[in-house]
Design a protein that fits this description.
- The chain is of the alpha/beta class.
- The protein is built from 16 helices and 13 strands.
- Strand 4, helix 4 and strand 5 form a beta-alpha-beta unit.
- The radius of gyration is 25 Å and the shape is elongated.
- The two termini are 37 Å apart.
- The structure holds adenosine-5'-triphosphate and magnesium ion.
- Magnesium ion binds next to helix 6 and strand 10.
């Protein structure tokens, strides 16, 4: 993770001790330390010379308008992250501080909030330094109820994009029963949990050590082998890992497991499109309907939901129109049922034969999701999705 430098001006004794203790456990360096804000000019002098990335300032004893303090700090150091530290969580004071231009407002206990704020900043800085372009698009695959085919589709879509000479990340966030490594024949030593547990030192070289190459052109970060003894990552950690990784790839494909789990919901904030995989079975359709409603209720735009009907029979008993009316969103794609083909595929320890009907459908799905067209149809730019 980017090695932030920190300037500290904290007069309140308790706040000072808490800030010091929190910073001691983090890989950042305190370069300016002041305990007396009455001598503001000497603090500013040092800020100007050392220009830390983050300034932590105690506003509990600050009597003048906060704009003055914030303005003076920004004048002295360019564009640091300003974190206001206070003894209370009074809503009006928080609002005033944010309006005055501070980036974060924290109060005791400082530790977790301070760590989170700094990790976020370090990641933003790290991304800029690593030259990530931030242009990547991401898809979260999850199944309406268990076994609808989310993992199968996520792995094959990622493989197709990899063949199209795209930089692809396939991330397994199904922490309970991740199968991405199995399907892609990836021998992973590390897992997504290593990223979560080392957020404070996550940079591109650390990340590259975590991912494996199971399929050409695709970097894979697996789910842990066993989760039994491990604690579940929190929402913020999941979001931070995805936010860090995404800009380094053209496409990020995430397996979010079954239904809308807590982790899935957290990840949803970082994915561009939610690929909900369902079958025509009544329980799956029922679940799909509930999930779509939950997504819409939580402000996830309808246009970002990609409903995929997997294992669809050749003849439907219900029309597409009826299905769409029932579920409230259009059907984005239909993938046929071909159990024997997949059975053979997995029994032989490989991925789908691209010439098979199901293989062709996977190609089509990847094309449709990514907007990358087949060369032969378009006759223009070569993307080589048919490789
Ligand atoms: N289009 C298909 N035709 C036939 N079988 C399929 C198809 N897609 C997936 N399957 C099979 O369905 C089973 C479940 O698939 P998969 O593991 O991809 O589902 P999932 O939604 O990820 O399940 P889970 O909820 O366990 O994560 C597997 O045996 C897989 O081979
Ligand atoms: Mg799965």
């Amino acid at each position: 993770m980017y090695p932030l430098t920190i300037g500290l001006a904290i007069e309140n004794r308790d706040l000072f001790e808490q800030a010091r203790a929190s910073l001691a456990g983090l890989p950042f360096r305190t370069t300016v330390e002041h305990r007396d804000l009455s001598d503001l000019s000497s603090f500013m002098d040092r800020l100007e010379r050392i220009r830390p990335d983050v300034v932590l300032v105690d506003i509990s004893t600050w009597a003048q308008p906060l704009e003055v303090l914030v303005g003076t700090i920004r004048n002295a150091t360019g564009d640091p992250m300003i974190i206001a530290v206070n003894t209370s969580a009074d809503a009006d004071t928080i609002l005033t501080a944010l309006r005055a231009g501070v980036n974060e407002y924290i109060y005791p206990p400082l530790q977790d909030n301070l760590r989170r704020a700094l990790e976020k900043r370090a990641m933003d800085r790290g991304r800029r330094r690593d030259g990530a372009t931030g242009g990547g698009k991401s898809f979260g695959f999850f199944s309406a109820k268990g076994g609808c085919g989310a993992t199968t589709l996520a792995c094959h879509v990622a493989a197709e994009l990899g063949r199209a000479k795209q930089k692809v990340l396939l991330a397994d966030l199904d922490l309970d029963a991740g199968m991405v490594a199995f399907i892609t024949k990836t021998k992973a030593v590390y897992s997504i949990l290593d990223a979560v547990n080392n957020l404070h030192r996550l940079d591109i070289s650390y990340w590259k050590a975590l991912v494996s190459n199971g399929i050409p052109g695709v970097e894979i970060v697996s789910s842990p082998m066993t989760l039994a003894s491990k604690t579940q990552p929190n929402d913020e950690q999941i979001r931070n890992v995805l936010a860090f990784a995404k800009p380094h790839y053209d496409w990020t494909v995430v397996d979010l497991g079954r239904s809308l789990s807590r982790i899935g919901m957290a990840a949803m904030e970082e994915v561009d499109e939610a690929c909900l995989v369902t079958t025509l079975e009544v329980p799956a359709l029922h679940q799909a309907k509930q999930i779509i409603q939950t997504l819409l209720d939580s402000g996830f735009g309808k246009a970002r939901i990609r409903l995929i009907l997997n294992r669809s029979p050749k003849r439907l008993d219900i029309t597409v129109g009826e299905l769409e009316k029932m579920l409230g969103v259009p059907i984005f794609a239909m993938v046929p049922n071909d159990y024997p083909e997949l059975y053979e595929t997995y029994a032989e320890g490989r991925m789908l034969n691209r010439a098979s009907e199901l293989g062709k459908q996977m190609t089509r799905l990847a094309q449709k999701l990514s907007g990358i067209e087949e060369e032969k149809q378009q006759g223009k730019k070569r993307f080589g999705l048919f490789g």
